[in-house]
Amino acid sequence: MYSFLLSLHSLFRWFVLISLLYSIYRGFSEASRSGVFTKSDDLLRHLTATIVHIQLLLGISLYFISPIVDYFLHHFSEAVHERELRFFGMEHSLMMLVAVIVITIGSAKAKRKTTDREKFKTMAVWYTIGLLIILSSLPWPFSPFGAQRPYIRF
Predict the structure, then answer these.
(1) Which one, of 121, 118, 115, 100, lies nearest residue 50 by Cα?
(2) Which of 14, 48, 53, 96 could form a disulfide with 19 if both were Cys (CB 3.0 to 4.6 A apart)?
């Protein structure tokens, strides 16, 4: 179960990144030229937030069955001083939760704006902040604790 969820979480991050990048692109490009916020733009806004929420649910499920997190929680005073254990036991999950909250707020605010330009701009700004938080908290293969972690886990 753990391996399956880990693989799914690893694969699903690409959907998160692609949907955020496309939403941000649409938001900034349409805001700059005062585009019309269509039903498809609203669907994109909603789908992006939904994809992020699904990833959060996968991450929460993983958190409760992860052997790394289990060790971190049961040996907190020692594990908090270990970079990789602290990252997965505390930093990654906390920052991802913050990113999901930022993206959710951005989606809700964009939905309630009155002009199309404000909708695009709000979506783009909040989603960009969420994306930056996500990018800073991913275990990339080039990061100190991600050396053994592939871009896609099978």
Answers:
(1) 100
(2) 48
Q: In angstroms, rounded to a whole number, what is the distance separating the alpha carbons of residues 94 and 100?
A: 10
Give the C-alpha separation, 107 to 117, whole Å. Answer: 14
> CB 142: neighbour CB atoms within 10 A?
8
- Cα 31 to Cα 37: distance, rounded to the nearest angstrom: 9
pLDDT at 55: 97
Q: What is the DSSP string of 22-53?
A: HHHHHHHHHHHTT----HHHHHHHHHHHHHHH
Cα separation of 26 and 20, whole Å? Answer: 10
Terminal-residue alpha carbon distance, the chain: 13
pTM for the model stands at 0.91
Compute the distance between CA of residue 146 and CA of residue 150 in angstroms, rounded to an integer.
8
Confidence of residue 138 (pLDDT cuts 50, 70, 90): confident
